[in-house]
Amino acid sequence: MDHQAFAQLLGNYGEFVGAIAVVVTLVYLTFQIRQSTRQARLTSIQAINASNDSAFNPIYIPENARIWTTGLEDPDALDGGEWQIFGLLMARLLASFDTTTYQFESGAYDAGLYAGLPAFYGSMVATPGGLRWYEANRHTFRSSTQSRLDGFLR
Q1: pTM of the full predicted structure?
Q2: Most buried residue, 31, 48, 62, 138, by CB count within 10 Å?
């Protein structure tokens, strides 16, 4: 084998090894991106769940719990200050649902986790006090959230 043929063979071999290295690198990067995306999505879901949980924290205060339950079922029994507290609780909870709905529609929140939320929040809006508050404030939520909640009022 002459020198030129040998150089050509080495060049071909080098190109082949380089191509294999590129393919291996691309496969590795694809795997890493998928892992990173999955981890980011799980972190996002965890943050959304923590936010939803914290939205309920004020209701666990006994006086607020009384205002909450009375406001849902018998809003006329609340005085002006209590109605304001009830409204703030509704705003906090439905804003959390609005954000979760946006995250779900953006693909950042799992469909299985989201599946029961519209009915849960819709049941709040369907109560006498929830309906009164929602009708006065529905414009503050995104249209897709309104549509989901409105489905429980039909």
Answers
A1: 0.74
A2: 48
